[in-house]
Amino acid sequence: MQENYVDRILKAKVYDVAVETSLEAAPRLSRRLDNRILFKREDLQPVFSFKIRGAYNKIAQLSAISAQRGVICASAGNHAQGVALGARTRGIPAVIVMPLTTPDIKVQAVADLGGEIVLHGDDYDQAYEHALELGRERGLVFVHPFDDPDVIAGQGTIAMEILRQHHGDEIDAIFVPVGGGGLIAGIAAYVKSLYPRIKIIGVEPEDAAGMYESLRAGKRVTLDRVGMFADGVAVRRVGEETFRLARQYVDEIILVTTDQICAAIQDIFQDTRSIAEAAGALAVAGIKKYVARENCTARTLIAINGGANMNFDRLRYVAERADLGAQREALFAVEMPEVPGSFLRFCELLGRQSVTEFNYRYGDLKAAQIFVGLALTQGKAERDGLLHSIAAAGFAVRDMTDNEMAKLHVRYMVGGQARGLNDERLYRFEFPERPGALLKFLQAIGTGWNISLFHYRNHGSDYGRVLAGIQVPLETRTDFLLHLNELHYAYTEETDNPAYKIFLGG
Ligand SMILES: Cc1ncc(COP(=O)(O)O)c(C=O)c1O
Q: Which residues are paired to 254 by β-bridges?
């Protein structure tokens, strides 16, 4: 099978539409990590991602008879643009099924490439089913985003280029973002057949770890829900063929957090002055984690920078979280006595430490709560030192730097601690953003339970995040949980989160 893939990759047709991208040194990151880091610049493809390779190879390999009927796919992202451009290049019709939740800007991008757009369903799974059905009805060829040998081979041409651009003897590892697994399957099958010594390391977000979980279980696992931040890799189940290849050839999968992805977007920017999308920065985040773990130096490590289709309005969020991911900011909750001078005493304690954020909320007559952000220059050691000195000065302090709810919501909230409120449970939700999404969310929650707290903040145009306090009497708790699970929104219960207790009076 391996030879088969090498053969398919060598014979893949991608260059009618894709370009051979450069393999560039990343001098700043290399210096910082004390290793030689190279970026494979797939963000420079015509539709700003590597997906055009696989989509076009599939389309180019079709017989004239199949091709003239046209192709169909389901996607709201880079695959949609790849299929639309690929079909236009071959001069055949393309139908792209997108969920109704797809932001306008993405619909427009595909329409501009000449694809016929069908909006259907609330999420990718529904769009996918509809595309299969429509394809059968209209006799169109379905172009799968990852689980197809021609798509895998198209993505594998990246490995062929890398080994032409840099001698295989001098490469230690290649880091590859993983969604459904098409990209890593193609790269691994090619590289391992020529240089089994080169490590192939997949990188996934912690909250979309489909390949990691599947490899661990020894079979394909379907995730109940996936985080949407790195939308290019937000896949609930990896492919059958991609899983088979990953099992055979992939050395390991590294998981990274949203903050680490944001920090990697900034690292890429510093070396290239280009902005990667979240999935496009995964490999760099993975390299950083690997180097810290292995404590290695002087290795040659390649990151596949897979795409640059970033929504501009998400940059605010990315910039905010990049400092946390790079350990340049610490967030603390500090309790101080409500006595004159304690504020001053606390600020004196901080001395010349630069403050990034300072939120105060009256607690009661005895104590006040402060949410404070501090800039760090020496990472975790400095953060631990600060915690220690604040505590030593007699203030009750808690580290909130890794507390997702505190970072997403509490830091933006002001309001009193509600008194006399019973049975409040706190939940954090994620849902696809589109006009009316908030209303739909509230309708889905229904009127069966009282909402006692609400914070919503739009993080870019494709998904919204809500923190909601809901009064759930004990006797209705089971019903409520059943209802929540039926909504199919990603959610986390936060009732026991210390930030809730401290700042919102839970
Ligand atoms: C930018 C980017 N990176 C990575 C991936 C993941 O590729 P695969 O699904 O082949 O694993 C995608 C998929 O669309 C993507 O758009």
A: 203
Q: What is the pTM of this model?
A: 0.86
User: Which single residue is written with the structure tokens 């505190």?
Assistant: 406
Q: How far is CA 274 from CA 89, 149, 177, 183, 265, in A?
A: 27, 31, 18, 22, 9
Here the CATH number for the domain that contains residue 170 is 3.40.50.1100
3-state class (DSSP) for residue 160: helix
Summarised one tens digit per residue, pLDDT across range 415-425 is: 556 667 788 89
Residue 163: pLDDT band (50, 70, 90) is very high
Ligand 1 contacts CB of residue 309 (under 6 A): no
Ligand 1 pocket test target in 183, 201, 235 with most atoms within 8 Å of CB: 183
Q: Are residues 14 and 61 in the same domain?
A: no
Residue whose C-alpha is closest to residue 48's, from 232, 295, 192, 210: 232
233 with 279: CB under 8 angstroms?
yes
* Ligand 1 and 77: CB distance under 6 A: yes
Residue 205, burial from CB neighbour count under 10 angstroms (0-12, 13-18, 19+): buried
Amino acid of residue 325: G
Q: Taking the CA of residue 37 as centre, how many other CA atoms within 13 Å lie in the half-sphere pointing to its CB?
A: 30
DSSP, collapsed to helix, strand or coil, labels residue 330 as strand
Hey, which of 233, 240, 243 would you mutate to test ligand 1's pocket, going by the most ligand atoms within 8 Å of its Cβ?
233
pLDDT digits (tens, 9 = 90+) for 239-248: 999 999 999 9
Flag whether 486 is in a domain.
yes
Among the candidates 402, 432, 452, a domain finishes at 402
**CA separation for the pair 99, 278 (Å, rounded):** 20
> How many angstroms separate the CA atoms of 96 and 75, rounded?
7
| Domain span at 137 | 51-142
Amino acid found at 232: G
Burial class (CB in 10 A: 0-12, 13-18, 19+), 442: middle
Torsion of CA 25, 28, 34, 36, to 10 degrees: 0
